[in-house]
């Protein structure tokens, strides 16, 4: 199936959705960002979701006709649906780190400010240069949960995700 923006689909979460964006990656399955328009019983419902395009299935022509009719006959809902903006999507990467000084989180965060964005490899180098041990999913009595945020699945030219925010959780 060649999914495209504007298609109406179902997926593993209940409801009927319109494809709003498709993020293509070199090293990962494409992700569809979906605006929910209806419940499975065709009741108007506005929200959003995202999933791998492999989970999306286009709806039948008959169901598409029903949806078009609902929009034509319900201008209030049509406006609400079309005016709804999907917020920026945040992809989170969680790990555990061991700080050299447990009371120095603010300093560490200021050293890791990267508005231009960094890949995981670049962030790991920064942590290493600051004597911060990375434990991945392991935990120890000295470890602190650390979170990175990638917005809207941004990638560099090599297909690596770019993270623009870091925080201790």
Explain what you see.
This protein has 2 domains: 8-83; 90-168, no CATH class. It is built from 4 helices and 9 strands, in the order E-E-E-E-E-H-H-E-H-H-E-E-E. With 169 residues, it is of the alpha+beta class. The relative contact order is 0.16. Helices cover 23% and strands 33% of the residues. The strands form 2 sheets. It has a 5-stranded antiparallel sheet. Strand 1 and strand 2 (16-23) form a beta hairpin.
Quick take:
With 169 residues, the protein is an alpha+beta fold.
Main pleated-sheet profile:
5 strands, antiparallel
What's the gyration radius in Å?
21 Å
Task: Count every helix, treating DSSP H or I runs of 4 or more residues as helices.
Answer: 4
Low-confidence stretches: none
The tally of structural domains comes to 2
Shape descriptor reads elongated
- The ordered string of helix (H) and strand (E) elements is EEEEEHHEHHEEE
The helix-and-strand class reads alpha+beta
Helix content: 10-25%
Assembly context of the chains: single chain
Task: Bin the strand percentage.
Answer: 25-35%
Measure the end-to-end span.
Answer: 40 Å
Instruction: Count the E strands.
Output: 9
Enumerate the strands of the largest sheet in spatial order, edge to edge or round the barrel: 4-3-2-1-5
**Arithmetic mean of pLDDT:** 89
List the helices and strands and how they pair.
Layout: E1 8-10, E2 16-23, E3 31-38, E4 44-52, E5 57-58, H1 61-73, H2 75-83, E6 90-98, H3 105-111, H4 120-129, E7 133-136, E8 143-151, E9 165-168
Antiparallel strand pairs: 1-2, 1-5, 2-3, 3-4, 6-7, 6-8, 8-9
